[in-house]
Design goal:
Blueprint lengths: L4 E5 L4 H10 L6 E3 L9 H8 L4 E4 L3 H10 L6 E4 L11 E2 L8 H7 L2 E3 L3 H15 L10 E7 L4 H9 L8 E3 L8 H9 L6 E7 L5 E8 L9 H11 L6 E3 L20 E8 L4 E8 L3 H15 L11
Parallel strand pairs: 1-2, 1-3, 3-4, 4-6, 5-6, 7-9, 11-12
Antiparallel strand pairs: 7-10, 8-9, 10-13, 12-13
Helix pairs in contact: 1-9, 4-9, 5-7
Length: 313
Amino acid sequence: MNKPRIFIDGEAGTTGMQIRTRLANRVDVKLISIDLSKRKNDIERRRLLNTVDLAVLCLPDDAARVDVSMIDNPAVRVLDASTAFRTDLDWVYGMPELTYDQPDKIRKAKRVSNPGCYPTGAIALLRPLIDDGILPIMTPISIHAISGYSGGGHQLIEKFENEKYVTDNYFLYALELEHKHRNEIRVHSGLNHTPLFIPSVGKFRQGTIVQIPLHLWSLPKTTSGRVLHESLSDRYINQRFIQVMPYDYRPKTLSPETLNGTNSLELFVFNNDAEQTVLLVARFDNLGKGASGAAMQNIDLMLDFTCDHDYSL
């Protein structure tokens, strides 16, 4: 039996490199690479894109759209890691834990969009609560998040790792309040409006924390932190990569780097019952479950492999 052939276009980028590293020792697939001298040769890229079983695109949005337009072989399946197709109804959203039947949808799909790092944490927290009717779809949502500088790609990595160019240990960005992840979060969480999203970067290479504060007193139905925790626990009880931390677990601090190198995602519910406030928190590696680790889950589903590999680095 022939091994499935995989071509990663953009394997020199942060996400592409990590996907290739995770696949390098696998004996059940054959990796196809483009000759470095032909990396920008459209004829060669078109040839490779049309002669593999799975094309994994780790490119900027516009370049990903060009690649997709080049594929005319109906047998080729595509996993795209850009933001170009994440809300496209013709593409399946590549978050296997999104719904109970999402793995089967990914398994059957010709076109799958890999989730963004920040949306992974936000959607994991919001979708079960909205599906269970705990959060109405019109609930005003604010999302605060911090990620390591690797989330900004090669340019930001080079800036932070060259000390003479680094002036800030921490900064907010997207202050025009129009970050491109907002619509992805809205669509796949089930909200009927765009959330307020405030991302930031810290002086550490990788790791992410996503925070969503809630005023329970403002909701139309009486609820509690424990009810929210039970909703999350029920949704993810059989999930390998998402762990809902115990309700009574109360660490003094949370580091965004704890899960680096893994494909794990931890969810927390912190509450103040007296004031009816809750803080929902997701913690994970932005290069793992937030990018290449999630891509590995999708690759195995799309190739109809068992998803029992170790996706850690």
